[in-house]
Amino acid sequence: MTEQYDTLEHVLRAVHANTLSVDEAKAQLNHYDELGFAKIDLHRTQRQGFPEVIFGEGKTKEQLDEIVHALIKHDEIVLITRINQEKADSITAKYCHLEYHETAHIVSTPIKHIPKTKHYASIICAGTSDLPVAEEAAVTAEVMGIQVQRFYDVGVSGIHRLFAHIEAIRQSNVSVVVAGMEGALSSVVAGLVDHPVYAVPTSIGYGANLQGVTTLLSMVNSCAPGTSVLNIDNGFGGGYNAAMIIKMIEAH
């Protein structure tokens, strides 16, 4: 695998020192891989610390195949979100080293092959119906190299279940709280910890829940400081933001 250089000067010095060929330098200086229907961002890792993530919903099996091929060709970690079983089976049949996380609806580079951080993120889920969103957050963070601890089915209707795990949650450096209905769990957690909390509203609830709009507005109006709110069902965003916090901590 060709060493990656983080600045233009480093690339030019490597070519001058004959440690990098002209063709390899051209490949590293290319900003994207043109597929016609998509342009694969090849500098995302250098800019943001993680490769481009593929949103699987709405893409055909053939398009996903070409995108995955491009990522693998450039030695990038693969993370495809919102992918159904049929498309996942098509991808993993051709790229057998990739794995499908059924509950999270994610195809990724095997998590066990990715080194993990010392610090960890807590992924906290109110109810079993919220699990797909919580697992999207947890798997996203794990693929990004973050150690994760899961605390599931600890919603406010049986709040003693949360308190049984509160010390372990307090030991983490960031929490992602996934909840539907009235979304009260994020405010409860934020009032008990001294680290950032990312609240992810889900579309789980009865009619007046309005497919998650009620939960979203409840979380946005939280009286607990330290809470940031993601979009409805955006487990990926919660996991990604948590990963950025942990990476910042471990970089210093």
UniProtKB/TrEMBL annotation:
SMART domains linked: AIRC
Q: Where does the UniProt annotation place the signal sequence?
A: none
- In this chain the PurE domain maps to 119-251
Gene name for this UniProt entry? larB
Species source reads Staphylococcus edaphicus
Q: What is a single Pfam family found in this protein's UniProt entry?
A: AIRC
A Gene Ontology annotation in the biological process aspect, one of them, is:
'de novo' IMP biosynthetic process
Q: Which GO-annotated molecular functions does the record name?
A: hydrolase activity
User: What is the name attached to this protein's record?
Assistant: 1-(5-phosphoribosyl)-5-amino-4-imidazole-carboxylate carboxylase
